[in-house]
Amino acid sequence: MTVLRRYLAAASESITAAREPVFDEFAAADGTARQGWSSLLAGLDEFADTDLLQAQHDVVRLLEDDNVTYTPNPASAMSIADEPNGHPHPDMPIPEGLVEPQPWRLDPLPLIIDDREWAGLEAGLVQRAQLLDAIMADLYGARRLLSRHHIPAAAIFDHDEYLRPLVGSGTPTGQRLFLVAADLGRDSSGGWKVISDRTQAPSGAGYAMQNRRVVSRVMPEIYHQANLHRLTPFFQAMRLALVDAAPHAVEDPRVVVLSPGTLSETAFDQAFVASLLGFPLLEGSDLTVRDGRVWMRVLDKLEQVDVILRRVDSGWMDALELRPDSRLGVAGLLACVRQGTVSVLNNLGSGVLENPALMPLLPEVCERMLGQSLRLPSVDTWWCGDQSALSHVLSNLDSLVIRPISRGHGRSVRGAALTRRQRELLADKIKAAPHRFVGQEMLHLSSVPTSEEDRLVRRNVVLRSFAVRSGDSYTAMLGGLARVTDDTSDRRGVLVSDPAGQLAKDVWVVGSEPVAAPRIVARARPDDEAVFVPAMSASIAMVPRVLSDLYWFGRYAERAEDLLRLLLATRTVAIEADLEVTHGRALDVMLHAVTHVSTTYPGFLTTQAEMMPEFRSMLLDRHRTGTAAHSLGALSMAAQGVRDQLSEDVWMVLAEIERALATLAANPHDQGIQLTDISERVLSGLLALAGIATENMVRDAGWYMLDSGRGLERALQILALLRATICQERSPETDRTVLEAVLIAAESIVTFRRRYRAGSGVDALLELLLIDPYNPRSVGFQLQRIRTDLRALPNTSPTARPLRLLDSLAERVRTSDPVVLAESVDGHRSGLQNLLLGLHNQLRALSEAIRDHYQQQPPTQRPMFRPDAVGGTA
Amino acid sequence: MTTYRIEHRTTYTYDSDVTGSYGQVHLRPRDLGWQTCVAHEITIEPEPADLFRHVDLYGNTQSYFHIVQPHTRLIITSTSVVSVDVNQLDSGALDLPWEQTSPRTRPDDPEAWEASDFTFPSRYVDIPSPIQDYARPSFPAGRPVGEAVVELMHRIHGDFTYKSGSTTLSTRVSDLLKKRAGVCQDFAHVMVASLRSLGLAGRYVSGYLATRPAPGMPRQVEDAASHAWVGCWIPGGGWLYLDPTNDRLADDSHATVAWGRDYGDVPPVKGVIFTEAKKSRMEVSVDMAEAS
After folding, report:
1. Nearest Cα to B264, choosing from B224, B225, B209, B206?
2. Total structural domains in chain A?
């Protein structure tokens, strides 16, 4: 029996036996599969335990390859029932905990919804978006809902996200609520209800698309047979709506996606949406306000920004008028919004709609504002600002979910899960400010087959759906982001608003007939979401932050690569030293070189250091500056910052490198064989990375910056290696071994042997590694390379400081005489040593000049005056 | 009716160049039933590239400016001519039992919903439970609201010491209650919090107070300064304005510039600068003279 049939049988049995009605998405009460699941059932006809395991394994691997992550947010951990711990001042920034991105978790089996059922849901979502939009326009405009008491003022005035500076700004550009999401669950009768509305800056559309791409690759046949509605039309609608939202008649409006940064909870989602849409992903420091407009600080000029799709919460968008400490937005933005020169989406202040106090009012407000009855109900909600609702909530704390009206007031809690003490505390809190709380029914939620090792288990599911502005109305995504809770009954009904620790599911809306054409916009290749390639190259934003990230991407990639070559070359010497004692001295030289070049002091400079543990540390220790692991970590960070600019192959390669290192880390008893093997795997990964840059990247300003970073790092590495190895003269045998190891580490041994007679020495080596302008591994070559790169960048005159520094460096290298430099006095090559040190210092100055010239960030943002020092007025 | 000419100058100096400066000011006196702003002008040095004016939801006029010229000194000078009368409130309204003046208890009053905006905690006015304990003695059941709030003002004036430099903007009401000292903003914040703790609507008012020189002495520029006081909503009467720092009702020596939930809604000048400067200094001078 296959896994699905086994689930079907077991589910029907337990549904029949259950005391209260239960809804399973797959198994109907009569033991048959529900409408829409037939293709999955047929497609998985022979799907056995091992196939299920394999599918999960494939999913994990594909997600790793795309570096799909979610970063849990520690700030949201405080619940409304926790003991208050002081009153933090609202201006205090939230402390940033140490958060590491976690791998995104996805179940291979989708949630399937028949498109006839979906049609009703979709109409409800669209109507809800229209309703929320109308409420938003009123709350920030005429405020009739408040003056006529259709919405109690307390539910709005005491909500953190009601931003008074925006009231009456009258959205001169006529912008409407752009993107609305709703978290939905089923009640026990199977009807969908809204658990919470998401209007601030809804996340998840990108994850939904990513889920689809992975599932379609893991189960391609079923995917193609499933009469499945596509997600791409939703993103096309989104793109159109963004362009339409431009405030004035601009022919080709500049749209940007504003992210709080790579450490934010849903950084992946933000970057992925940006690249799906083909708009640049920016951070606050990339923007500036001038002449009452918003501009992007690109390489040599300012470019006006017309539309900002924000993933930054409203309150952080303008340090001048909103949170004064915020650096996530752009100072002066509100003035621009009032001038009508820029559209910010969702409209600033839209977070006030994430307000469960509105839920019980929606049916009436919907009648009033839209003249329609509300199609999609919310979960039963009691707003405690209402006297009778308050007593209902207080006497039913056990069976309700208690939510604050404003998310900033703390996480929601399930009354039943509280201790007695917590319940009393919460009741007191509610009584002290009843209007700040609601009680909500606990939805039963439906169950859905979910993989757990080699079987399918029943898990509760919550569905996040999306609707985006489209003309005068909204278009819903034909699918969504489903999430299941890991444990069953205990968390049933809990508010699945925090995806940490949860498993996602793709959502398939399927028809009984093949889906003829995408329902929104025709596409050239509507069928291939697996290879959906975003139109991104046109949108690259060469802001200083991006250029800096690309430059360091180049430098760290090169640094890691050169270190691995050096480790491998040194390892070869070590193996020879085991066979022949005379190599012992050479090994010491090379081990010291490893420490000097990587600056992992004290390393081999102490006598206790053992080679294998130290080499392991060089590969695996992320927290030790100078190790390969450290460089790879920094490389990955730089890549995160420019995710929308990099080919997906980059992540695949980085994931492969991570897997290789994890293999080594898992084997602490390795005697060196695996270490060599893994080093070679990592090295070949890094070579692949270099290949991607050479073969697949458009030659734009970003590429030139990346390449100059690579060149500069390589030159620095060669100089450091030469300084650590050949500035002293040793016995001929030792020197011969060292020379050869240096040439291997510098990937020039073949050329050396071909070009120079046997027994050639330091002078030949210097010619090849220092001066030769044709050896892509020489310092001289790098200087030319950097020069070519910089000249290709805009805003680089021949007299720009980086070029002047390059000229003087090149002159010094060109005029060096290798024969003279190779001469030693008392075993010391002090002339060589001075030259290498001088060149090293000049290169560092060049790097600083490049930073100042191309990657200059604006000066630090501060308040006009530190308020702490204000003595106050009279 | 008294007419004043007010010159309010704020000077910032920095120890190195500021390359961009975004500011927002609340400096224009309001037009009110008892007050007319006859003339108003703001000059900013260096000259800003942009200067936009905007009226906020409370009816305050605010200006936004952006300076792009690098500078180490910024001077904002506001010159206003304003005529002020004493704002007389209907004494009948002041006789209402205080419990009946909470916006919550007046659902039929057309102003109540807007007044209720001033009943909740705000950025600089937290409402810890000790503040209610502090306010309560002035509000026995059924006491006329006028009497109650004036007594509250007396008590705050008596219990708190005026001491400049004793507090900062991040001092919370709960701290002020312990410290029992502060400047006019703190007096106003404490009183606003007291009113709100009982469900009354309390607003923060920013403006100027004219001081009269002692007999025979010339009037000194430093005598006047920007000032802050409090408004309490009285159904059917409008707002009663009280000055807890000076223990008196606001009168024709109080020129109103702006009001909001607390200082944070209406600072005379605030801004964001871009600079590597480590130190900054601010000097404020206000000259308020009766216009001839």
Report:
1. B206
2. 3
